[in-house]
Amino acid sequence: MSTKFVSLIIILALAFLLFGHHRLRNIGTDLAEAIKNFRKGLKDSEQQNRDDNN
Fold first, then answer.
1. Could you count the other beta carbons within 10 Å of the beta carbon of residue 43?
2. What span, in angstroms and rounded, lies between the C-alpha atoms of 7 and 48?
3. Nearest to residue 12, comparing CAs of 22, 3, 24, 1?
4. Rounded to an integer, what distance in angstroms lies between the CA atom of residue 50 and that of residue 41?
5. Which domain holds residue 24?
6. pLDDT tens, residue by residue, 1-52
7. Number of structural domains, the chain?
8. H helices within the chain, ranges in order?
9. Is the whole-model pTM more than 0.70?
10. How far apart are the first and last CA of the chain?
11. Within a domain: residue 31?
């Protein structure tokens, strides 16, 4: 195993111990929703720029 992989496993284990599975799941869900809304905002902004240029 590479050192990076072992380091990643250790970090994930510590995060699991600190936050627990329920809180980590909520963080993951919130992060996914934030990324989704960010992409939607970019798409809407690009569409608005196209409409303004025409």
1. 10
2. 44
3. 24
4. 14
5. 19-54
6. 688 999 999 998 998 888 888 888 898 899 999 999 999 999 988 888 788 7
7. 1
8. 3-53
9. no
10. 55
11. yes
